[in-house]
Fold each of these.
Amino acid sequence: MDKKILTIILACILIATPIILYYSWGQEEPEINKKPIVELTFPLYGSTVSKIAIISGTASDPDGDDTQLKVEVYIDDGWVTADGNTKWSYEWRVYDVEDGLYTIRARSFDGISYSQVEEIKLMVQNPETVETDSHKWAVFIVASNFPMDNDSKLGNGGLNLAENMAEFFISNYGYSTPNIFILFDDGWIRTDNGYGDRLETLMERDHKYDFIYGGATKSNVLSTLEHVVEISNRFNDSEIFIWISSHGCGDNTNELTGGKILERSAVFLWDDILPDDELGNVLYTLKSKKTCVIVDACYTGGFADKTIYSLPEFLLLKSKIPKTGRVVITGTSKYRKGYASTINGPLFTLLWLEGITTGKADGFRPGFRDMGRSTRLRIFKDGKVSVEEAFYYARYTLRNSEELEQYNQMEPQINDQYPYKGTMLSRRGLDLGE
């Protein structure tokens, strides 16, 4: 090679090298995104599930930005977004799913990369028949601790009371655990009695009975009630108990009517509201002639087609929940607030249950405008307590107890159409479990 050309090449290399080194040293190495991580923690691999399965797990981003995480679950209809990120869950309703082995997959996404897919296998086994002596269903719906910035959370009191009632129904009324549904908040227990962060799902925690647990989301509430209506309609002797505890929709600054004149009663669910007529539509096809519905929240008299002082609701605002064979009870009138303990649950239901479990309500009668009154006449006492007697006991106690004086304006309401519509035709009380 010509020495002159070689000299020129070497000179170019000597000039270019420091320039290249300068610019390479001045630039940082591009960061490589690390894949997020996902885990399926519940149920355990190979578990058997029925009716509602809360699938849950954890996820994390090694890059330290967990707030961007999204978790997706795949069963058989494509990927769907789970609820939550670092602690997530997905409710799989399997009422109408064919029995068999299913593969559940989960993955997380950090905005750039997907995690590796984790999977478990679950066995779906829904009982096809209900035993002859178990044609009884109970649905407990509790929405307490929403939204995140709400300073009037109700804690876990409603859940505790729901479980206490369910256990009593099992021990005394012959209800079976597969027929008891407890729907609470978003399906999670939180620290600090409901005020804190997610701790574990309802199904993961230690519990005495294997009730069917789920979240009190609107889709879950409606599908559960529709399922109970459909399956109970197969039997002529079915018994249905529905209990709802939540915040009622109203204006707390309006002490006279709660802003509910010409408005429907409604309660909050975890992610939506449930107006009285929408519950009426769900229960419209229910054939059971032995049904008790209790709604314990503020401003809920409209669920019983009552306003206040046992006065009827306006015709165009009727909920259509009351019907032959049903007793519909509300913890307050349409115009009044209710009260609840964050540990023990709503006040009216606590008194109602006390009247039943202790037998104190035996013989209680309606009195003037359903105010409730006790009786010493043996003819009105039979050693049992009906749901109506417990109502009159609770209402009487609210109005006459010095300890409860500050709560005596709640004005609980009742619409008793058991066994038939009309005062004279409804003297027979609804005894649960018989």
Amino acid sequence: MPTNLDSLRRHAVVRSLFEPTTLERALDRIGFVQADPIRAPARAQDLTLRHRVEGYRAGDLERRYATLPIEEDFFVVYGFVPRAIQALMHPRSRRGVAVAASRSWSPQRRKRAQLILDFVRERGSVHPREVEEHFAHGKVTNYWGGSSNATTQLLDAMHYRGMLRVIGRESGTRTYAAHRHGPEPADAAERRRRIDALVNAVVNVYAPLPARSLNELVRRLRYAVPQWRGELGAALERVRQRLAHARVDGIDWYWPAAEDPDRNDPPEAVRLLTPFDPVVWDRRRLELLWGWVYRFEAYTPPAKRKLGYYALPLLWRDRVIGWGNLSVRNGRLEAQLGYIEAPPRARAFKRELAAELARMRAFLDLEA
């Protein structure tokens, strides 16, 4: 039978929400996990991994980070990538922090960065507080228009350029050590191989993708490889030739050629997904597959919110049917659920919803 929206929807769920495995294997299979500092009721990276890692508990990624072959870095957004993927992106050219204006460093900024790098090498590892106490570079205006320590901002920029790596966190604050990446590609063929591998990694995280989303994700690799941003257009043309493709309801869809979207049977399960989960990350795809316009409202004024501060999309089998706002009060989980239409009346749904809330309590280490 020809590929249709039903098969694409099933494929989007089944290929991403695979059978839970070990943390290292899950990270390798996904290829990228987006990070976000908001806890509602846990950070996005933990909420993403709990569906894919057997026995996962909130904070496991941070607790085990130093023992895993992963790095914090910019990919299409900021998050966690296997070292093999990070190696494809570096060394980066001398540019500013990815989310700020792209610009060359002044001689003074280069000198400050070198002094900090020497300081970090001497110490072995540092907390930003130590660097600020030693150098006291003062305050600067950050990307959001607020005030930040100039030293902290420079550490971020040095991390982005690959001079530093994140070795852990203390109460959520990144700690750093010096880092040295491998050489640049030896020739144009090796450079294209690296770019194509990064594009494949993007597709692996978010497929199946409508054409417009594929275009935008490949362009977002300018954050991963600003030194090759001019070559991403050609990489997009190459990946279109590599991927499987179908035109459904007037829209072109793409996914890895080895996969068959018509051979998927979604599990009978309820899942509450973080807004940054790969299944729902692409809001355009979410609307096409499930006919629902979902908006992340954490930064929306409270009076204008329709779903809630951190509404988690509610998935039943292969259907997004509503959302949940979860919080912890007095050591107990509180869940407020909303539905796009009426909630399913089937006993199976009620049973699986109770099981999902039980999994959430275990994930948060809360009382039943």
Amino acid sequence: MIKKLFQTKILKFLLGGGLATVLNIALIYLIIEKLGFNTALLRNIANVISIEISLILGFFIYRTWVWTGGNWTIKEVLLRQLPLYHVSAGLAVISRIFLIFPILDWLKVNYAINTIIGALVSALINYFISDRFVFKTPKQKKSLTYYPEALAPALLENSSLIGNQLRAIETSKSIKTLSIVIPAYNEEDCIVQTVRTISTVLEQENIDYEILVVNDNSKDNTEQLLQQLNSQNSKLRYINNYYPNGFGFAVRCGLENFTKDAVAVVMADSSDAPEDIVSYYHKLQEGYDCVFGSRFIRGGKVIDYPTHKLIVNRLANLFIKILFGFKFNDTTNAFKIYRKEVIEGISPLVSHHFNLTVEMPLKAIVRGYSYTTIPITWRNRTTGVSKLKLKEMGSRYLFIVLFIWLEKHLSRGDYHLSKNKLLANQRLKSNG
């Protein structure tokens, strides 16, 4: 395992960067202390020289150890790749100094942790740009599935049977019923309108549904209103959150109690358009495991989004895009839909608060479930008070993002869907 870990491209990149950093420190020490560059001007010159030499060394470490092969002509290396690498490294440093550090500092993240995170993120930015633009590595081939040793011969001999079983599993994709999970904490001003609007739209579309509202120990009249709604609509039910208070706990409570084929997580404040739930439902019928809405693609829309939250949202989603290397640009939005088997496959969920909105889609993507993106509309609440506090949530979001990033790169695919499908096929074979 250790040998395979040290063969991964990202780890090689980090180790190469560490070696270049050590050289940088050693060079600046030698130039200042041994060569006497000890005035303000000369120290700056020493800094520039040491940075440039370490950058060039880092480039050739990456070129010969991380991104091997390719075109080694002078024109390609010196006139295109090396200058582009300088731009890549410069952008990473600028992002760290003027973007990452100020945001984490504003979120009151400890400066030591801030520095470590800043170094890691800037290295990842450098890696992403280098991988996509500087060295232009070819697309990686899909990884092979490694069977348990005792079963490998039988499985390989009956590969046609396995293929048929896989197709049988994947063709049973029809969604007949839909659950809506709504966490609600002190939502007396809007919960009735939210529930009634969703019910009306789904009934007009002849979609069999249930609405499950999780009352997160509200201190206002939310529970009494839910009791009234339940007596008027048999497809609405509510439960009281049996976990401690918190958005993540409330959603997890709902995900443990919904009963239909798929589940959409919808906010109680009417910020999510019911028509988009219908679009989600129909998109699932095409065979996707999840459907993720984006407010920031063509056709998407945000109405009355607070400016400071919008800026933080865009920066956070950009960070996630770069870190995981996918194109989806609205990971932090809670409003998404999942098949029942996806919820089972990403469990257990660990987030207590709004960081659950990131944990669910990232786990689904990392574990190999299929998804597509459609444009959606989001409208800022007109009543009540938002429960999301950015300064309280920054470190929690960061924790769950890095937690799943580590799963992606260090778990060796232990939780990946391909292995779950293999086990399912093995069970089908033994029962056949």
